[in-house]
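Below sits the subject:

***
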Amino acid sequence: MRSWMALSCFGLAGAVAAHDFWVEPRTFRVSPEASTAFTLQVGHGPYRQRSPIPASRITRFQRIGPFAATADLSRSLHPGGGTDDGHLSLEGRGTYLIVLETDHRAESHLPSLRFNDYLTAEGLTPALERRRREHRMDYDETEVYSRRAKVIMQAGAFDAGAQAPVTEPVGLPLEIVPEVNPYALPRPPALPLRIVYRGKALAGATVKLTDLDHDEKPVEIHVTDGTGRATFALPVQGRWLLNVIWTRVLPADGEADYETDFSSLSFGFS
């Protein structure tokens, strides 16, 4: 049974923002051996809320630690809890990467005008080009979608010899891969990143940086170049979210028209 998201009841801003999804720990920096609560968040501004996603749709929830040591965190999940959706613990000093992935059983349906606006706002050129080429600009469309979220956390003081592979892909279909550790010392002057889609560099993807404490709209937006790269100013304080969306056309005989991936990377300095 597919879960439906009634995007057609929102305006454009709501429809687009309703898909942005991330893991937000109570704090991104903890003492070694300490734990912190987290929530699963969706949307921005007035549309922001705890995600209603059930645990049964989460197919991967891992902690990747220094030296690429991994741990399954699925038992720490309890979506829909009273004040949080679970707890994260970091075992020892270093930089850690938390990875969450869902299945693709969610589905949304949008009328033609709203779908065209959504594709334009998010820079989803494969769908736009297909609609123009096949004279489908007046068609309502259906997409199935899935979510991927990564979190960079720091336990104790930064240690250059104790870092998870935050600058390498971890096997997600759509992935934001920073090319520096934002917690590194001395502080990097900028945050270069690349977008990887199905194992290859993704050119032409729209990447947004949002201040989670003032999240009505992104503070910086870039489109990836021919090598799948973009560079953002690196914040020095606060809590931050990077997100990207990409879609591909599905065969005409399927139940949906497109398969869309939503990917995020969150980090913070408190």
In short: Confidence is low (pLDDT under 50) at residues 1-18. Residues 3-168+243-268 form one domain.
